[in-house]
Amino acid sequence: MQKIELCIFDVDGLCLDSERPFVEFALDFVKRHGYDQIDLDYITSSMGQGQKESREFALKRLGPDFPIEEYASKLSKEAAENNKGKIFAVKEGLLELLAFLKEHGIKTAVATSRVAKSAVRDLINSGLSDKFDYILCGDDVPRSKPYPDIYLNVINNFHCAPADALVFEDSHNGLKSAMAANIPCILVPDVAKLTKEDHNNAFRVIPSLDKAIDIIKEINQL
Predict the structure, then answer these.
(1) CA 92, CA 81: separation in Å to the nearest integer?
(2) How far is CA 35 from the centre of its chain?
(3) How far is CA 185 from CA 121, 167, 168, in A?
(4) Which of 8, 28, 89, 216 is most buried, most CB within 10 Å of its CB?
(5) Could you read off the pLDDT tens digit of each residue along the chain, which spans 222 residues?
(6) From edge to edge, which strands make up the β-sheet containing 165-169?
C-alpha cells in the first residue's frame, strides 16, 4: 500500500447499527416457525453474504433436506415488514471518518451484499446516501460476498489498484471478499462471528471507524 485513494464500506453492522436488531428478529423468527436447526451461531456466521450465497451456506451447513426456499422466502418477507419505517442508527465514528476522507480528496464507496432496494432505502433514511461517491449492492453483481466480485467492480469503477484501496468490514464473509480481491481490510467488529484467523488476516482491527483516521494519516503522510 503506497497511498490510499479509495475507501470502501460495508453497510450492515459497519455503517448502520442494523445487525443487532436483525439478530433479535431472526432468533424470534426461527423460534416462531420451528426452524430448530438454526441458532445464534448460524445466524452470526452467515452475516455478510448475498442472498444466493446465503442459500449455498444454508444447504452446506444444514444439509440438502433443509427447506431453504421456504425459509428464505418467509424470512425475507417478515424481515421487510419488520424493518418498514425503521431508521437505523449510524455507527460510531463513521461521520467523522467520512468528513476526513472528503477533506483529503479520498473517494468513498459502499459495497453491500444487500439488494439495492432495501440497502439504498436504509442509507437514505439514515441520511448517508449522499455521503458516498458510489454505491454497489449485492444484486448488482453476479456473485456477492464472500466472492470478490463486488469489491473488484468498485475498484474498477474508480480505476484504482487494489493496493491503493482500503475496505472496512465487520464480518468474516466481508473480509473473505476483500481478501479475494487483494484489497487490505480493516475490521470493526460488531455482532457477526469473527475468528482468531480473521483478526490475523485483517490489515488492522479497530473498535470504531474514527480510529481509522490516524491509520490513514500515517499511510498517506498527512
Answers:
(1) 27
(2) 25
(3) 26, 5, 6
(4) 8
(5) 679 999 999 999 999 999 999 999 999 999 999 999 999 999 999 999 988 888 899 889 999 899 989 988 998 899 888 888 889 999 999 999 999 999 999 999 999 999 999 999 999 999 999 999 999 999 999 999 999 999 999 999 999 999 999 999 999 999 999 999 999 999 999 999 899 999 999 999 999 999 999 999 999 999
(6) 134-137, 107-112, 6-9, 165-169, 185-187, 204-205
